[in-house]
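re: that chain from earlier
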Amino acid sequence: MSPKDSTWIKSTCAYCGVGCGIEAKVNSLGTLEVRGDKAHPANFGRLCSKGLALGETVGIEGRLLTPKIKQQRKHQSKLETVCWEDAIDDVASNFNNVIEQHGKDAVAFYVSGQLLTEDYYVANKLMKGFIGSANIDTNSRLCMSSSVAGHKRAFGADIVPGCYDDLELAELIILTGSNLAWCHPVLFQRIREAKVKNNCKIIVIDPRRTATCDIADLHLPLQPGSDIALFNGLLAFLSENNAVDHDYIESATEGLELALASAFRFGDIESVQAVTGLERAQILAFYQLFAATEKTVTVYSQGVNQSTSGTNKVNSILNCHLATGRVGKPGSTPFSVTGQPNAMGGREVGGLANMLAAHMDFDNPDHIRQISDFWHTGNLATAPGLKAIDMFNAIESGKIKAIWIMATNPAVSLPESKRINSILANCPYVVVSDCMADTDTLRHADVVLPAQGWSEKSGTVTNSERRVSRQRRLLPSPGEAKPDWWIISEVAKKMGFGDAFDYRNEADIFREYAQMTTLCQEGNTSLSDMTAPARPLNLSGLAHLNTRQYHHMTPQQWPVIEHNQPTARLFANGEFATPSGKAQFIATDYRPTASTLSPQYPLLLNTGRVRDHWHTMTRTGLSARLSEHISEPYLALSAQDADQFAVKDKGLVTVSSELGTLLLRAHISKECRQGQVFAPFHWNDCTTSMGKVDTLIAGSRDPLSGQPEFKATPVNIKPVSHASEALLICTRKDIASLLSDQEHWTCQRTHNGYLLRITSQQSLKQLREWLANCLAENETNGLVEDQTKGQQRIKVETENECRFAMFKGGLIDIAFVVSDKLQGSIDTDSKSDSSNDRDYDYLYTLIGRPLSDPLVQALFTGKTPPEHQNGRLICACKQVGVKTIEKAICTQSCNSVKDISDATQAGTGCGSCVPELQLMLDEIQVKQV
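^ sequence. v structure.
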């Protein structure tokens, strides 16, 4: 099928590594309409809430539109607009000057899984091939590098052997370190359907009881960091009970004896119990089911990778699959799922500091020689560069003088983010390429370069099952935004490398990359070592696509030896990419997490994602509906810990580690076990005052992969009293800049404007007066008209509450409610707000409404008209709120999630809200008994 069917254009989603196909068109209102591509084999038309809201995240608002260079004016530095030529000259000359004065390793690139493969390829080529340093690393270091290292040790290459179809063919699926329901919702729905259709058993291994546990037959809430003990115990159990595939082990693997020697430290269930904290019956049930089920898929993600022992965790899982011969077979394989849309594509083209392009290696002389010849360079880097955290440490020590950051926000996402911000602030030269005009990282830039965003880019991405898909241009680029590959190429030309970067378009780059994957393959007569194994990454079938064929390319999995004849699975024949051709068992010793609990820091903090947000919210934060489900940073904790630390639900708490302190909203939840707490990492300095979670995370990392430990940080918590709160809606985001005097604030997108939440230790009167000064609010109750400004202002004030609204052109422009009790409106649980006699959910929709509107009238009464009582959003796909769902349960006798869906449409989109619907149903039914 053509990529363009009528007015619908086929492309790929911008978010997680599932790599869902989408179709998009500009509708009659001039906005981008997005739907799932039913022909795409990753999702068959399904999309999650984030994918469905993609059309709400594009446009000119908040965009970086012109190149800018920091200029010194009257003792102040300020970014000022320049032309592209001046910006490129500045970057090229400064990088050349640093290299001339301090050497090639004094510069660095920090790139991103948000880049397209073509962008990634050009960036890697410039740094490793022509600057001659390997100091290019990627934010994929933070999420997938432990899987990369584990795959290379076991399989000889960074390979995910299976495909998504295996999820429907499996009889047992193990989900470990993965809240698939929220982080990869489309895969979760495929598994949910397979469970019903095939009676597939599901085991979830996770310290938290997440939404993914909704489909679990068995949940193993192990102690954080104890995965190796659990899987080493499984390997020992398989060996002791003769549940291994002896023929496969003999013909296809090496190293089992050493791996078993480590595994037998956990050769009895009691030793596994002691480390994991699991019950004997739980462990035994897991081991027996794994041993008895040939068609087993183990899905693993950040909970495994983000650890100081992440690589060994990966290999402990792979060891169990190798011992049973379950690798790359239908319904039977280990399966690493990636976190970003092009994390795998970046790994393919050398985006990691310790890899060369096309899965070639620094320690192979033939690889070095052939890449040098292919790129016509005599300056190829010959040794690995600095991994992410080491790179920023080198900036701090003065070894790196200039860094170019592309399509990522390390000032928020890296551990020790307070120190990272200080490092960037003191770096002599910082270049940032981004599509957004205000991020925490961009605030440190000496030069900013406007890049195209999703919907404007054109190129390819590779998803978690090795499927290469086209991302196509849907909209014109705003302002002077350019493709990342063009920006990098123009800088390369100015640096003196013009001939090697003379690309006409992205198709030229893809062809060059595809041709590069054929280098040093088995059978190439130019090799001096004819025993070298073939690399599975091979795109020779796509290496000669013309531009038209490239633009019409359909999704296909590599290796692609012949055009349109991809390979779904790898290693099923027992032949691997290691020098011996055999897979390697790896001895993995269990070690505790890097940090230990103490009386000063008695709780263990886990971090992760929420359902409707993505990374640091520079994209999802633009969508009103994606901000409604969970609208501010929070700390989830158990009821027992809440009692012990005197924390009230929805109250504020300080969360402190050795590195800093945050202020978060408490959320008492059944998801956390006693002694463990959880906080999402999405919020940043642009969206909240004290909620940047990575401020608390130490820089401890896996010695092999360099991946940081994000899942186990010792913290302490303390309740914080507050005297007043305010909700403020307005049409201008810049009002958030007025909040620097307030202890706790958050800012989120709403329909046609912004909602700001303020919690203060000031009295109600003091907070109201502060807002009055900020907004020039009138001091008189009732309606006041200012005809000279075309304004109407209304205020209603009582002893413990003040409500105010200002209208321009007859439509509401600014409004706020200040009270001594607003907590009921700030709730991350699915429980009803009905216990609170005041209703504030309608504030989301007031911007742009006239005074005569019933909802505007409700601003001054606190009582929403029944027909508008939707409440806090539960189902983002279908825009169904908590009160609508509660009403359906109570008045239409809903006894199942299906009944709720039939009555309200909730849960009929991506389905990631289904566990929450079930929880609401259970709680209401308990109350009704």
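The longest strand covers residues 660-668.
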